[in-house]
Amino acid sequence: MTSLTEQQNVADFYDFEAALTEEERRVLLRTRAFMRDEVQPLVAQHWADGTFPQELISRFRESGLVGLSYEGYGDHGPAAGHLLTGMMAMEMSRVDASVATFFGVHNGLAMYAIHACGDQAQRDRWLPGMARMDTIGAFALTEPLDGSDIAAGMHTTARRDGDTWVLNGAKRWIGNATFADHIVVWARDVDDDQVKGFVVEKGTPGFTAEKIAHKTSLRIVENADVTLTDVRVPEGDRLQNASSFRDVAEVLRATRSGVAWQALGVMTGAYELALRYATQRQQFGRPLAGFQLVQDLLVKSLGNITSSWGMLHRLAALQDAGVFRDEHSSLAKAHVTARMREVVAWSREIFGGNGIVLEYDVARFFADAEAIYSFEGTREMNALIVGKAITGQSAFV
């Protein structure tokens, strides 16, 4: 099937793209064209095989789309605003959530952790190469036994030994870790019991990353089980401005909204596929789009997409103004991913039996939605963050 990404975003029913400047619009269209021309032809087979298309790294390098959020790093002017970067995440996920996740881990979690938690010398050391995608980043926080409770339950340890730190422990679900050059590893200092960040370089003795196999979601992403056995990291590679889990939370607060934009992209891509299929597929002598029940599913899907657009548009404005809080990004992540889950299910339903065949793409969106629904904080954990903000009462155990 021909992708609708070569046309206008028909799911942008209220024309939110009109809020972009002319230059921002050009960047968005460049993102759309890149995903259409470079990514879409590759993803179905790589998703089926569970492999990452390494050739995309050099194509991203040439695209000029990396590092736009970081002024002074990369060949661009002022840092892009949150509305543009959010829409870029949406455009990527509109074609493939796995590639968008690879990009988000590198350009968001890893680069932002260094930008926010490193000192100026560390930013100047690592970010230029990452902004050119000459080097790839990963972000290692989640552990085999600790996900939602990682703030209190982190088992990975860091022990100071002269001018180096010795890291021991394990991490799980670490995207890009099998081939990343710089892995931001979070560990608990055994002396003060505080969480600190370290940049572990590829090839460091004692660091291993084993690809997680047999996934049914985001199959293109190379998630890994990471093991750290007496990994020695110089003091100069400890992120100098990360001294507690509050600093980790700051990184997650900033990147969680990007996951909500990804969710918008996934439901947009699924909806567009369903809309096209409904207008082309004939049953009982007429297009599926001519049946009331099918139209109802499409309208409900468009309503979810449009309301999510409105929430994220306002969230981007709060971010640009520097007044957004944890509960703002948590509400967006919880709400938009829940709406995404509904839309991908309705879209797959419109395809009937064809909806489970990769040839029609919607099955990929349906499966990938499950991972996005869960990572960067489950719906329940984000609901508790918002609940505490609106009631003043903590319901965390």
UniProtKB/TrEMBL annotation:
InterPro entries: ACX4-like, Acyl-CoA_DH_CS, Acyl-CoA_Oxase/DH_mid-dom, Acyl-CoA_Oxase/DH_mid-dom_sf, AcylCo_DH-like_C, AcylCo_DH/oxidase_C, AcylCoA_DH/ox_N, AcylCoA_DH/ox_N_sf. It holds the Pfam family Acyl-CoA_dh_N. Its cofactor is FAD. It comes from the Bacteria. Keywords: FAD, Flavoprotein, Oxidoreductase. The keyword Glycoprotein does not apply. Residues 21-133 form the Acyl-CoA dehydrogenase/oxidase N-terminal domain. One of its GO terms (molecular function) is glutaryl-CoA dehydrogenase activity. Residues 138-231 form the Acyl-CoA oxidase/dehydrogenase middle domain. Residues 247-390 form the Acyl-CoA dehydrogenase/oxidase C-terminal domain. Belongs to the acyl-CoA dehydrogenase family. This is Glutaryl-CoA dehydrogenase.
